[in-house]
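Notebook, bench 3.
Goal today: get a predicted structure for dTDP-4-dehydrorhamnose reductase from Halomonas salina so we can plan the truncation constructs. The sequence was checked against the plasmid map this morning, with no discrepancies at the termini. Length recorded as 297 residues. Pasting the sequence as submitted so the record is complete.
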Amino acid sequence: MKLLILDAGHCLSLAMAREANRRTDVELVIEPGLSLSAERLDALRPDALLIPPLSRPITDAPAAVTAHAEAVEACLTACREREVPMVWCVSDQLYEDGLEEPIDEHVVPAPRDEGLRRLVATGERIRAELPRHLIVRLGPLFALEGTHAWLGELLDTLVGGNELRAEDDVIFCPTSADSVAMALIGMLQQQGCGADAWGSYHLAGTEPVSAYTFVSMVRTQLATRLEGRGETLALGGVKALSHHHDQPLRRVLNCRRVLDVFGVHQKPWRLEVGRMLDVWCLARGDDARPVEETRET
């Protein structure tokens, strides 16, 4: 299976590259930006095109959101002309006001924000114009590297001794970029084998949590690991913010359909964060080792 993904520096593109590199049944081509022509599709002949999400469209500049939507629609036109399936990943922030109950796929986002409405309109075009599509709505992505790599940003801030601020009244399901990459490849392989299960799917981690609790847990786990390594760092603190005084805003995606159709189980975000922190600490030790050896010499 040959896959093409755009936006080379995105944390999801990097996660897809890691997953493809450890397999023998996937060839991954990565384009540097979001622009793609029908001629480029002709040259590459992928089995599917994947587009990573804007992870924080609510806070992104309106011009950036519009540019992303226009780029996705240009890709839609190219895929329609060449009959190439398209996978568009979208942030759960499109559900601007959330819902009390877990949000099913049939609930079409109806945001008030103009930029979010622009992204919803793009999704409607995809559904109307390209039968073979997957619109995959994701929880807040986290990874160690790449753009939109939330966890990497948190670690840099904490290690730098700077304060983190996070809402204690916004509830969501943090989602590992690595687990999304694994799931997307599995879903597309089943589609290639005749599953014919196109449409919208929710893909997020298990265990709803507030942004403040997630960030606090990352800080606690980081401190524990650094202490175990004999390192003493004055990590930055975490401050709780409250914007929804009446009741918490719940933006929790119901991921039952992706399990029923493709057998994709959601990975617990605590396990994924722990694994990534172990990787981060190991890389930190590897970076330090040559310096120590030089001093001994």
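The CA atoms of residues 34 and 67 lie 10 Å apart. Residues 288-297 have pLDDT under 50 and may be disordered.
Flagging this for group meeting.
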